[in-house]
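We modelled the chain as a single entity of 287 amino acids. Its sequence is:
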Amino acid sequence: MLKLNRIMDEEWDYLIILDACRYDYFESLREKYFDGELEKRISLGSNTFEWCVETFKGYYPDVIYVSGNPYINSKVEIRGFNASRHFYKVFDVWDFGWDYELGTVPPENINKTTLNLIRKYPQKRFIIHYLQPHAPYISKSFKAIGFPNPDPQSMRFLAGIKGYHKSRFEEKINRLSKLLVKVGIIKDDWILREWLGLPPASPMDAVRRKYGLEGLRKAYRENLETVLEHAARLCSELLHFKSPVQVVITSDHGELLGEGGRYGHKYRDRYTLEVPWFKVKKVKELD
């Protein structure tokens, strides 16, 4: 039986979170960037909010959270989860490091912030949360067409916080989609939107429509390769910052990429729950 990924019960100095990183894709790519010990674990949630609530139960005065994900922030409470109550400090890279053209936080902005902070707070442990491989896909080969890039200031994609509203029409479409999924007429709620000629539900859905299933999987893989390269560069610094040091790479949840006709991480499934737990021993030489 696989072990639950209770990250706060483990020993680590620097914990790297790759958002929406599937175990199988990580396993296939990690040897290009790292040597270390890999274990498959089960996440405590199939989405970031669920993972936050189940993972961070206490207050961790020795932990600083470097967040590329707006769900973990120092500014607002999301459905009862207030990150500032759980960590010594939360640094909102999703806010000051957001790239509005890409619609996400570039991994290099996470690296820059982290390196500055560990010099300022050398005695603290760090959780370092990249937004990749989660969509939007930052490869120039896979531009999301038909869906506006996420914007942290609008907060429209942060369901559960004040200021988030859907139109009545969107609410009706969502309810109908969920009903059709429940009775087995469609596999995923995105399908109804496509049947009705509505815009894509997300950047991921936009890539799926334009490039097809294999294109979507390639876009996801390239996004993971991009963040792994930046994580490797960061790990090279972290492994030499102090000794001994334990650097671990894991994920908040996985991702469905068309398996069973479903997409994203709206569902509890092996592909949304199986995540890596990887103890970094050495970083491979990068070009």
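As a brief sanity check on the tokenised model: The chain has one domain: 8-163+213-283. The longest strand covers residues 274-283.
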